[in-house]
Amino acid sequence: MNEIKVFVPATVSNVSCGFDIMGFPVSAPGDVMVFRRTEEPVVTITEVRGAEGIPLDARRNVAGVVTRAMLEERGMPFGVEIALEKGIRPGSGIGSSGASAAGAAWAVNQLLGEAYGDEQLVEFAMLGEQSISGALHADNVAPALMGGFILISRYDPLTLVRLHYPADLWCAVFHPFVEIKTKDAREILRKELSLREAVKQWGNVAGLVAGLQREDYTLIARSMEDVVAEPVRSLLIPGYEEIKQNALEAGALGCSISGSGPAVFALCRGEENARQVREAMEQAYRHRQVEWRSYASPIAAEGVKILS
Fold this sequence. Notes:
Ribosomal Protein S5, domain 2; 10 helices; alpha+beta; 11 strands; Alpha-Beta Plaits
């Protein structure tokens, strides 16, 4: 294989109480990436469309960082040219950098003849995330690569678990165009929690996993409470409380911040409810002078996929 074109889905990470350990992909939006094998052993970013400020320097570009790491691990058997069309707005909270990293890991693995397994690909993709956020986290790249609802049960060694979830579990996403950099959003988090807060968060994570596994919507709803990131990061999102309240009043199981924000997501039971919740979230911004986009999607069973 000398050239491959892939679609990489946006992802919802943290999923309320699962800070850095949970995520899932949605069907839209997503990035389109083209990887072309070259004889000269150099990684080059040839084009970035759909977003400003993304570097063409492969050493500073997330996709370039991942591609270089994978090829260097194999002794640079060839080079790669990368063209990106960003459908996921940078700083959105729905996995823009994660998509670039995951797309690179998956596509380069194809060019290498599928030399690596899922967990190895996630580890390479995490290097891309680290290059932009300063932290190794997999809650965007793992679901973008693997599809479905993913739990990172451990980071050392990396341990990924595919979670069962109800077939009619949908997600509404509301994305106000307010940029929040992941690195900044991580820096404002509290460094310590009280034992009471920690116990509450652990219980919510366990409850969410059990609720998904048992298809218990009541338990899923009761478990979607975050005492770690949401209390601080919500202050960075204009109108957050109104968005959340509207979503819950429209019947959402739960609503919280996607990743670092500003995107807000709500888990819903079925397509009709997801579309109602999406519309309710939009109402919170009808009077604001801020652009936004919204989406309603089932949890995507597939991650990165080849485009013909």
